[in-house]
């Protein structure tokens, strides 16, 4: 077997029929086999070593040694070698997975007596055993459905212990997450073993990695829970031990999980890393997806309970105006009064407002929001309804219609009903500050809508224009990532209709396209210079390089690889990393190379080979939009998933520039428009008799002392 330190992968044998692992960190060799022989580059050092099959046999025997030291060393080697798919296949063929599970199930009892006198050794042994198990299972060779209840109970017991080694806890949480995500039967068994009470202490700790894995388990259980268990009402009462994490709507409110995450994770005195941000985003999406059922439920006009909600809206708004005793009034008079009130409430169908809620989305969710607003913000609700009912017909802001359209718009903004993206980290802290965050979000926005309607002096014909302005106000406020709902409300106060007009005017001026012939000729003249400038910027960014995350459909992991262009723009250097780098990664630490001259094409989206493979990633629209591949040689490719849209544009532009092709990304078009506009405006400035210095003005000297103050009065 040959071992290739220069390529930064785990060892693999030429005689074995496995594949090439691409998940090992740099500095680790990988086994060379027939299938991956084309991966060898000129200058790669080959070293003769033991075959993976022999390695697997030796380790299989060594981990069963009676010597604790020998067993510990063998498990350490196994944890390292298990990252390679060829070795993993050989070890699994020896029934190695069963051996590891037996060691986990029985080993703890077997060495229970030794634990007191050899606790560090025991902890390391268990940690290496679980690490090897995680790495072997991550190759997808063995089905998760094959594991016993005893093994699940043992893994769960490590999580449930109050004091356990951090590495053991981390790997146990990772195993439970994978079990839940990959097997419906195991989900049921894990859900019986893990309770919210046992996970909360891990969230209250200071280790962000443990917190991340804990929230990942919560998300996995949440994602796989049956619909009936997810949709438990927030006001219902559930014993904390009955259903651990699946009745998430109840638990988030009743069991203070939300407030614990807010206090110990979001508002902790440390930066939130990308993986934690992703898990919080997933939890946010899954929580809002609980609204999907109501959003897609049409109102039944014959359902008296649903009709009573509309009656309650009318009662709260017009109770003071109702006559003391209406029983003597005729039925016709009562109908006439109800029709008048429903018109004041802003329903489209004044006679039977239930018909307004038959469109999905937003369905019954809109009515739920209206009732919440009427009950919990009663003064604001009454003020809006009465204020608009006293205006002229054409200037009134219809509360009912506005609430329905606003609910639909907020669902679109928050993507209610869509599965979470594999790459997105876009969570909003303010949604973790309230048990009924969506309803409160609606209450703030419906008041904003009414305020904007008045500022625009809108009529019924302007309804869609008002909704567009409100959407822009909400989106701009959300981009600032307010930490609380009050801060979000404050941001909206500063985004009045007048301010939106100023922003739009400013953006129009910045993007102004002068159409006169001399200006168009000037644009044609300077456009090649601007494109060359953009090209150089893209290539410089490729020289700096980017860290890409490795994704798979089995288990999201913190596995990274780095790619950068050589300063002479002739070679792409890339290699795997154990963790996300701080700053640039030197060329000499990236062992793999791809000459630019060997690149045949760059493909994106659905045309990428890794997007055509079977798996969950290809189903995700956001991942598709970030995927691109470099095709080289025959049937060889380098696959990428960009961390965000900006990096995707940078890399696809840069690679196309290297191949002599046009840069066609949205980022290039925006940069070209911005730079052209700036350059034209600079050239059109009236600079007659104004001398422009060649060098910037000197920085003034510091004052001799700072004992002074400027009085603004």
Q: Main traits of this protein?
A:
9 strands, 713 residues, three-stranded antiparallel beta sheet, four-stranded antiparallel beta sheet, 30 helices, disordered N terminus, alpha+beta
Describe the protein.
The chain is globular and about 95 Å long. The chain is of the alpha+beta class and 713 residues long. The chain contains 30 helices and nine strands.
Q: Give the termini distance in whole angstroms.
A: 83 Å
Biggest sheet features: 4 strands, antiparallel
Residue share in β-strands: 5-15%
The strands making up the biggest β-sheet line up spatially as 3-4-5-6
Number of helices in the DSSP assignment: 30
The radius of gyration is 32 Å
Calculate the mean pLDDT score and round it: 83
Subcellular location: Cytoplasm; Membrane
Protein name: Engulfment and cell motility protein 1 isoform X3
Main location: cytoplasm
Pfam families: ELMO_ARM, ELMO_CED12, PH_12
Summarize the structure.
With 713 residues, the chain is α+β, with helices and mostly antiparallel strands. It has helices spanning 52-62, 68-81, 85-93, 96-110, 112-117, 119-137, 149-160, 166-182, 184-193, 196-203, 208-224, 227-230, 248-254, 257-266, 274-288, 292-295, 304-318, 331-344, 364-376, 378-389, 399-413, 437-456, 463-479, 485-493, 497-510, 517-544, 609-612, 621-626, 645-658, 666-683; strands spanning 2-3, 47-48, 546-549, 560-565, 571-577, 592-595, 599-604, 627-632, 636-641.
